[in-house]
Amino acid sequence: MRIALYQPDIPQNTGTMLRLAACLGIEAHLIAPAAFPMSDRAFRRAGMDYLDAVALVRHASWPAFETWRKAQGCRLVLFTTTATKSYLDHAFRADDVLLFGRESAGVPPEVHAAADARLVIPMRPGLRSLNVAVAAAMAVGEALRQTGGFTR
Questions:
Q1: Which of 11, 27, 109, 145 is the most exposed place for a label (fewest CB within 10 A)?
Q2: List of domains in the chain
């Protein structure tokens, strides 16, 4: 199981998601560019004390990430507020990459088109969205529950 963050905007959310990945033993992928420096030094300066415990892979761009993903044969599962299928009705696999978009704008059409599945976390009508780190925790929890836990 892996999580991927598409061009993240908010460093605190990214830090929370990296901590989630470290604590649950899943790989984290960051797809540049981000709205903040994504170097180890910048993360350490921001107090990311779990950096040594996370399996972190950085991708210079969306095309670079897609090249890596296709070479690995991983399925791309996009979490988006525009999907109609609930994440609770999806059959996750251990080799899935769970992708979360930018806090400010989600992901562009070409990323939607590349996804093997597009899922939503159901919410009450009239509310915009969950915090991306909260959404990632919910999604990873369900995916690990279905697949039997850790893959590393």
A1: 109
A2: 2-147 (3.40.1280.10)
